[in-house]
UniProtKB/TrEMBL annotation, chain A:
It comes from the Bacteria. Residues 15-37 are annotated as: Disordered. This is Beta-ketoacyl synthase-like N-terminal domain-containing protein. InterPro entries: Ketoacyl_synth_N, Thiolase-like. Residues 45-175 form the Beta-ketoacyl synthase-like N-terminal domain. It holds the Pfam family ketoacyl-synt. The lineage of its organism: Bacteria, Bacillati, Actinomycetota, Actinomycetes, Micromonosporales.
Automatic annotation (TrEMBL), chain B:
Residues 1-388 form the Ketosynthase family 3 (KS3) domain. SUPFAM superfamilies: Thiolase-like. It comes from the Bacteria. This is Ketosynthase family 3 (KS3) domain-containing protein. Belongs to the thiolase-like superfamily. Beta-ketoacyl-ACP synthases family.
Length: 331, 392
């Protein structure tokens, strides 16, 4: 297979209530946000007004870049960010709306008002790391974090940047939200660099991956012809990331209990799926799983390569071919 | 890298459903005042917005999706790929939206209920399901430049060979929180959306959607589709400066424009990017932004700044948030097709600090090449070209 779309990951940063080690981190603990101490994580001044999802993003980014080799050599205009979030500002917006209904506009905080636009969560990240290449915010349900890797990798290939911080960040949903029990808190940040065909991976590479996304129209999966079309599309997606339709790889599925999940499982072949991990309400879990496969692949499961698939009831679908550093070739 | 062509456009604005309604309004250039919001909890001092007509929109799970479906239906029909027919290649969908279906959640709260479990950012997925589109399905939320980035992502997908056919654009509908936050930041104009006016006081939001069918030139040719225009290069940059204010030197918005124009070279020397027939600026009516964009245009265009007509779209339709850049792309395509730069909506008095050319009469499009600018909170800048080309 060729190196198209393949990116090297040269840094990984994780911040969750369940810890910051990618192998044990858990974003799914729906506890209050007291697990994150802003002062010790970020500094005493200038961070408290930031929404939690922006704080988690900053903390994870600092961890991701701390050991990255050659970062200072990348000009600001060649550094960029691609950040996924589904609910990073949801609780904040719900609170603002209650204020408007129950009080009036003057009771809105001018400090947090800009965050009605979810992309502002990445504003401080870009300022802190001089990310002037671009800043993208992706919000596709469940897959936005993996999509950040896909879109960031594509932007690298298109020459828009030389380094991209690809991330997912989420905040706890409000107590009255139906999915509060599936809330995610925390952030994952990967430092992406391009791997040119036939060239060695950049120094300090943790591993590499290729991500592609597709869509399973929920309305298609209920009839046989539609299900066959969906099956063909999933096969094409697998081929696009791995180079083959039936890769001999451990397959890890992050999903829910929907009809779409069933269709994806059928297309993959239930016997081919090594593990099924429940998805949360946001986009952190799939990217965290990718980080785990990069940093701590199972020792007794082949050469460490794996295929990660994420799918949700709305039809969003992503596949990631992951190759940790012990097999550093791009081919 | 492959050429990207536009083979279909669709639009919904406060002037009606369909790109023909948009073009008619562009030609008439009426001073249209914003509508009072039909919401008992509409934020205090400025409860106004340019509302799209909803009675003829298709049913969908939220207002933004309804707008998007109407625009997508027109764009696909325009491209000869009507809804219900199976496209020759997997259809990819990329949608820019600032607020998604936040308005649906706000309606539920206003009625005393609790919003359901449906995702907020579901516009792209709704389109994907409705159109049975099995390609990539991407929701981009770069605030007011979201659909500019959606077009850039879509074009990159085609250029690197990942896709042949992409439906890309943007949609945003009324959100109480968005209107309230702009009011709280003192960035809402009490009169109307009047970019570059001496007395402007901020922006006024508008509902809207715009979708474009993008194809590789080869794919369009293979099915005998006639391109409406070519989507040229897009430039992306980030101020990395402030959550809401533009960086005063405009270094990064200049860089985005120069990338789009092909003036951004590795050694920084710059080369000529050729002439422009029109610029559709971001121009929102917020005080600092219009000045900074005017100065940036002068840095890029030099003495030609006062010769290149600006078409100030937001004065006509309001600031349509995540849909704004795609609406500008549709407007640019219409200008290119008609060969005419329409008159701008009249200003009371142009701000002398905004030294740009805003003609109030229509004029022939002198050069078949238009630049579109789109900026957003977070300093998320993009500029792109709509032009005729060998394929158009």
């Amino acid at each position: 297979m060729n190196s198209a779309g393949w990116v090297a990951v040269t840094g990984v940063g994780v911040v969750t209530p369940g810890g910051d080690d990618p192998s044990t981190a858990r974003p799914g603990d729906p506890a209050p946000s007291s697990w994150f101490d802003t002062s010790s994580r970020l500094g005493r001044r200038g961070y408290r007004y930031l929404p939690p999802a922006a704080q988690y993003l900053l903390a994870a980014a600092r961890r991701a870049v701390e050991d990255v080799v050659g970062l200072a050599d990348v000009p600001a205009a060649r550094r960029a960010a691609a950040v996924g979030s589904n609910n990073g500002a949801a609780t904040l917006l719900a609170g603002m709306d209650h204020t408007l209904i129950e009080q009036d506009v003057e009771q809105l905080s001018p400090a947090t008002a800009p965050f009605f636009a979810v992309n502002v969560l990445a504003s401080r990240l870009c300022a802190e790391h001089g990310l002037k290449g671009f800043s993208l915010t992706l919000t596709s349900p469940l897959v936005a974090g993996l999509e950040a890797v896909e879109v960031g990798g594509r932007a690298l290939a298109a020459g828009r940047a030389d380094m991209v911080l690809a991330a997912a960040t989420e905040d706890r949903l409000s107590d009255d939200a139906p999915r509060v029990g599936q809330s995610e808190q925390g952030a994952v940040v990967l430092v992406l660099r391009q791997v040119a065909a036939g060239r060695a991976a950049p120094p300090g590479t943790v591993g590499g991956c290729r991500v592609r996304t597709a869509f399973v129209p929920p309305g298609l999966v209920h009839d046989p012809a539609g299900a066959r079309q969906v099956g063909r599309r999933i096969t094409a997606l697998i081929r696009a990331v791995t180079g083959t339709e039936r890769p001999d790889l451990p397959v890890h599925l992050v999903t829910d209990e929907s009809a779409v999940a069933g269709a994806v499982m059928t297309a993959l072949g239930p016997d081919s799926v090594s593990s099924v991990q429940p998805s949360g309400a946001g986009c952190v879990t799939p990217l965290l799983r990718l980080a785990r496969e990069l940093c701590d692949p199972p020792r007794d499961d082949g050469d460490g390569r794996s295929l990660l698939v994420a799918a949700d009831e709305g039809g969003n679908l992503a596949a990631a071919y992951v190759r940790p550093v012990r097999t550093p070739s791009t081919s | 890298m492959r050429d990207v062509v536009i083979t279909g456009v669709g639009a919904v604005t406060c002037h009606g459903v369909g790109s023909a309604a948009l073009w008619q309004a562009m030609c008439q250039a009426p001073v249209r005042l914003p509508d009072r919001l039909p919401d008992p909890y509409a934020p205090g001092r400025r409860p106004y917005m340019y509302l799209a007509p909803t009675e003829s929109l298709p049913a969908a799970p939220g207002a933004a999706s309804r707008l998007a479906v109407a625009a997508a239906t027109e764009a696909l029909d325009n491209a000869g790929l009507p809804v219900g027919t199976r496209p020759p290649a997997p259809l990819n969908v990329v949608v820019g939206t600032c607020m998604g279906e936040t308005g649906r959640e706000e309606q539920t709260r206003a009625a005393g209920g609790t919003p359901g479990p449906e995702p907020t950012f579901s516009v792209a997925a709704h389109l994907g399901d409705r159109l049975r589109a099995t390609g990539a399905n991407t929701s981009v939320s770069n605030a007011c430049s979201a659909s500019g980035y959606a077009l850039g992502i879509a074009a990159d997908m085609i250029r690197v060979g990942e896709a042949d056919l992409v439906l890309a654009g943007g949609a945003d509908a009324y959100s109480r929180v968005a209107v309230g936050c702009f009011d709280r930041m003192r960035a809402a104009d009490p009169v109307r959306c009047r970019p570059f006016d001496r007395h402007r006081r901020g922006t006024v939001f508008g509902e809207g959607a715009a979708m474009l069918v993008l194809e590789s030139a080869e794919h369009a040719a293979a099915r005998d589709a006639v391109p409406l225009a070519r989507l040229g290069q897009s430039g992306w940059s980030c101020d990395a400066y402030h959550p809401t204010a533009p960086e005063p030197s405009a270094e990064q918005i200049v860089r985005a424009m120069r990338q789009a124009l092909g003036q951004d070279t590795a050694d920084g020397a710059g080369v000529t990017g050729g002439r422009l027939g029109c610029v559709i600026p971001h121009g929102t009516g917020t005080q600092l932004n219009d000045v900074v964009e005017s100065q940036a245009l002068r840095q890029v265009l030099g003495a030609a700044t006062l010769d290149v007509p600006l078409y100030s779209l937001k004065a006509l339709v309001g600031h349509t948030g995540g849909a704004a850049a795609a609406l500008a792309a549709v407007a640019a395509t219409l200008i290119l097709r008609h060969g005419t730069v329409p008159p701008n909506v009249p200003l009371d008095s142009q701000d002398p600090e905004c030294k740009v050319f805003l003609p109030h009469t229509s004029s022939p499009l002198a050069t078949r090449r238009l630049l579109v600018n789109a900026y957003a909170f977070g300093g998320n800048n993009t500029s792109f070209l709509i032009e005729s080309g060998a394929a158009a």
